[in-house]
Amino acid sequence: MSIKKVFFVLIVLISAILYAEDNRKTLLIYSKGYSYLSSKVEHKLKEKLIEIGKYRLIERDLNVLNEVERVLSGVANKEGFEFKHLAADYIVYVEVIDANSRRKSDDEGNVWYEYEIEGAYRLIDVETSQILEIKSINAYGSANVTKFISEDEAREQSKEQAIDYLVSSLVYRMNKLFLISANIINIKNNMVLINAGRNTGIYKGMMFSFVKLYKVNDDVYRKKGGKLIAKEVSENSAILEILVIPKFEITGDLKVMENPDLSPIRGHLQLSGGYILDNNYMFRMDFMGDNYKGFGFGTFIGFIFGTKSNFSTGISLLYMKDFGSFMPQIGVDLYMNSSLDYDTEYATNIGMGISPNIGMEFLITDNFGITLNGGYKFESIIEGNFEETNSPFIRLGIDILF
């Protein structure tokens, strides 16, 4: 092998090693306050951050952490302590200021526990000692006492729920400050290959937006659009799936940027009304979500009025196919219903039903659509003099997408 080839191979190997360097942000987490709670919050925060893999965490000697606290509290001289010796990029300083548990009850004998944690955190840049963010966070939790859950268990569950809420809020705040961006290497069908992976903190399921840079009077602006999710992640690259196409053209010069405000689930709020072919009318409200791949799930409440008055609630399962401005769909509803009419013979009149249906949604905008569907109601009596509905129906409504 010639000297030139050896030299070239060495350059490639060195470049590969440098490229594979761990470029994740390094965090030093330190907590203060109620000994049990602060330790629990710190432990769960570290556990969560390690689980997602976006950051590197380091530990330091207790004496060093105490000195950090003295500096942050203004007791010790800041000039005598160099943060950069901590070998961290940022310090996450978490404080549990106050916490209290409350036992609540109502006139019907229901008992539950509420737990509240008053917390605060500071995010400090080690290089500059600058406080990047300071935030107060109030976290809440509640749990009911039942025949299966004792008062002690409910009290503990409410505390754990409040701790989890506080930790989730802290992770969200940090993710908003440290957004990962990457260049696009290749685009094929609805898949995007980018030049960043675990080495920068990307993990499977992370949400991204397309970013288009443009200049106005020598100022650079960013325009975000679309929605992507990380499907496959390797050390130095990742494959993202396009869930929502941006308004601007997708080209190779675009970038992608992490967007923790996005969700892999598309939400739907549907309001609809219709006619049942047994001379009754219906009104319905649906709360649904779909995974952009056709599968949807949700709950609903409905009312029937006319010759009878019924209330129903249940779950919906559906499959939809997205063809741009219109989406055909097929689904089934499983529900319980109750008569709203007064009955002197029975205290409750209850039934259950199943309703297969088929329909179409016409999208007016990305966030608003018109729905039209029809189906058949199959119902049976569970208790009392419930009057079943076994008849076809047609329904028209609106869909608010978010």
Q: Describe it for me?
A:
- The structure is a single chain.
- The chain folds into three domains: 21-177, 2-Layer Sandwich (Double Stranded RNA Binding Domain); 181-258, Thrombin, subunit H; 266-401, Porin (Beta Barrel), CATH 2.40.160.
- The protein contains four helices and 19 strands.
- It has helices spanning 3-19, 35-52, 62-73, 151-177, and strands spanning 25-33, 55-58, 90-105, 111-125, 131-145, 181-188, 191-194, 207-216, 219-233, 238-244, 255-258, 266-276, 280-290, 295-306, 310-320, 326-339, 350-365, 368-383, 391-401.
- The longest helix has 27 residues, at 151-177.
- The termini are far apart.
- The model is unreliable at 4-19 (pLDDT under 50).
Helix content: 10-25%
Number of structural units classed as domains: 3
Q: Spatial order of the strands in the main sheet?
A: 12-13-14-15-16-17-18-19
Our estimate of the beta-strand percent is over 45%
Total strand segments: 19
Mean pLDDT: 87
SSE blueprint and pairings:
Elements: H1 3-19, E1 25-33, H2 35-52, E2 55-58, H3 62-73, E3 90-105, E4 111-125, E5 131-145, H4 151-177, E6 181-188, E7 191-194, E8 207-216, E9 219-233, E10 238-244, E11 255-258, E12 266-276, E13 280-290, E14 295-306, E15 310-320, E16 326-339, E17 350-365, E18 368-383, E19 391-401
Helix pairs in contact: 2-4
